[in-house]
Amino acid sequence: MIKLIVGPKGAGKTKTMIDMINAAVKTTEGNIVVIEKSMKLTTDINHAARLLDVDEYHVEGADMLYGFVAGVLAGNYDITELFIDGLLKIVDHNMDAAAALLAKIDSITNGVEVIVTISSAEEALPESIKKYPTHNSTKENPYNRGGAIRLRPCFVRFGKMKGISHTTGSA
Asked: I need a surface site. Which of 2, 19, 29, 103 has the fewest CB within 10 A?
């Protein structure tokens, strides 16, 4: 299942994802893989999550990213969560390519929870991306494995979770 974290630049999408990764590391029985561009998360995420930088593997564009994701999944059947940060940066801000990529990834990730950040206003998303749970789909707790994440430019709303502030997402 694919879930999206959508919001404008500076809305806290990556911070939300980091919190989700670190929370998942404590509870998952499988492996967590994080795919990003430029290795900016190295010091922020728990070392138990496998961090992969697409720049290191010269991955550019939607087709190459799909092949990369498929290869990662084929090489490890114990992956339970896959996080992709900054999808539009990787696909050169091509919304149509991003939509096609999400559909292809969705078709090969049975049993893997896929969380993707997209830096965009919701109104700018094509219907082919809006079909995935996004920040306006539900206000459920993002850590309950059931709901999407609601982000606003300077406000992140979370459900009740021990040790996490309900308005900022910080401990």
From this structure: 29
The span from the CA of 53 to the CA of 18, in Å, is 15
Q: How far is 70 from 74, CA to CA, in rounded Å?
A: 6
Count Cα neighbours of 158 within 13 Å in the Cβ-side half-sphere: 23
Give the H or E element holding residue 14.
Answer: helix 13-27
Confidence of residue 40 (pLDDT cuts 50, 70, 90): confident
Inter-residue long-range contacts of 62-71, CB under 8 Å, 24+ positions, other chains counted: 62/90, 62/91, 62/94, 62/97, 62/98, 62/100, 62/101, 65/35, 65/90, 65/91, 65/101, 66/101, 66/104, 66/105, 68/35, 69/35, 69/105, 69/108, 70/108
Please give the structure tokens belonging to residue 30.
């499988």
